[in-house]
């Protein structure tokens, strides 16, 4: 009786928490196809203005990789009405902050201002969409910026090539086989005509979502949005028809060398479904079960008890078309990579063949409940979630109901999904080794 009472109280609290956290929003389309999402929260005098474009690293042709990431930088160069190099000065001098980021699937620009500068945020993003200046000087400048970023974050960073190694191992046809940042030879070969055509195709209102969240007046905001974005002409339709990958049915192995490391690493990777699929949510829970925190199965066994690994982690990397699930481990002392792989497989076998315990299941539910609440704790986070849910998941309302998906996942489903995707014949094993010294 006590257990039933405790469960009932817990469920009631969870329901009240979810309701208290519910995000109200309004969405509509402009005539030019721009999707608009508005969220009003007058509790603090701040407003986030963001535009997400449905263009990422995968949107490229052979020999022209990395364009979306280049544009992340290039579209800060200036516009017909913003002098070159003045973008960040305008933002900071008006009490704001801004940034941008690019994934394989989308590019996201945003500003956070005191709410009395909402109009400035809208003007900046409309300028980026309507009047960007794209010339050879800007392209050359930003290619050098990208090169430096690649050197700093990938080429000269320990274990910085891991995601590229996994992409190359899991994909042979789909553009996910190439790194989001692109290959420098492709950027250097790009012409002004190439870059201009890319802008005309992807950075158009009908391939974007504008989100405004924070201390706003809905009616006034709609009027400003129409004034700034309404005159922008609709672009052509973006058509994607990327090749499908053949299923992985036989385990494969590869070796990658990294001159920046001294300790080798093992990577076990699996190709999984895109993040819109229900199974992707289950895989997210499995990765948390295996390696999130010192009490997780892999960490407790291999790091804490058996002292075989310096570090071990399971990561579900969500992408629109296909996901990547990988387990990364670093050995202690004389422990071999093969030993690490054997120990990891032992734990994955258990998930594939046995139900996780009720207490572990409840811990997972609590963790995802907390993450859901925290993700909607700021207007900046809400703006990003609204844009992502609309553009990539096709369902803006996930901001309020995504937690229900996790709540509905059962222990039996966790076992079934692990058995569906995490089998030895569906994996690639990458030995990630210190660079061999050249022979004398």
From TrEMBL:
One Gene Ontology term from the biological process aspect of the record: proteolysis
Signal peptide location: 1-20
Residue ranges of domain Peptidase M16 N-terminal in the record: 36-178
UniProt keyword Signal present: yes
GO MF terms, alphabetically ordered: metal ion binding; metallopeptidase activity
Key words, A-Z: Hydrolase, Metalloprotease, Protease, Signal, Zinc
Superkingdom per UniProt: Bacteria
Pfam families: Peptidase_M16, Peptidase_M16_C
Domain Peptidase M16 C-terminal residue range list: 190-367
Protein family according to the UniProt entry: Belongs to the peptidase M16 family.
The name this protein goes by in its record: Predicted Zn-dependent peptidase
Organism: Cellulophaga tyrosinoxydans
